[in-house]
Design brief:
elongated, four-stranded antiparallel beta sheet, single chain, alpha+beta, 38% helix
Length: 152
């Protein structure tokens, strides 16, 4: 008769390995989603290419100064783009984006336009239905988001 294998030490070491692997996985998740670890500001900053202020996502646009008049329609297009970029970066915008100012670009012929919007990292958003989408921004101005034109 063959001797019986004892698996208790192997099982214990396998459980320890699994526990260590689960802990490593959790650490990776926390690095990827700092908001889950209680640091939403860190996650917003990591996901915002142009920076963040707390949980406000910041977006900068560089435009040629001769093309920039500061008319409202130009702001509305940029505000919709700010919401779009936030969503693409895993952030859920809340409310309206604000125009935070303009400054001369170092190239001497362009202007840097800065906008921001309050966000919630999607990894911890328990009310995603409250996300303000680019469509919401456009329709708030009574604009049409359809690509088709009415035939007359």
């Amino acid at each position: 008769m063959a001797a019986r294998k004892t698996t208790s030490s192997k099982a214990a070491s396998t459980e320890q390995e699994q526990a260590a692997k689960a802990e490593d996985t959790e650490q990776v998740r926390q690095r990827q989603f700092p908001a889950k670890a209680g640091a939403p500001e860190v996650e917003v900053d990591e996901r915002s290419a142009d920076g963040a202020e707390g949980t406000r996502h910041i977006k900068e646009f560089v435009v040629h100064d001769r093309n920039w008049t500061g008319e409202e329609y130009q702001h509305e297009a940029n505000k919709a783009a700010v919401h779009n970029e936030a969503i693409q970066r895993g952030l859920h915008p809340r409310g309206e984006a604000s125009f935070d100012g303009a400054e001369d670009h170092p190239d001497g012929v362009s202007v840097v336009l800065t906008y921001s919007v309050e966000t919630v990292p999607s990894s911890v958003d328990h009310q995603p239905e409250d996300t303000t989408t680019p469509r919401d921004v456009i329709e708030a101005d009574d604009k049409d988001t359809s690509s088709s034109k009415a035939e007359g």
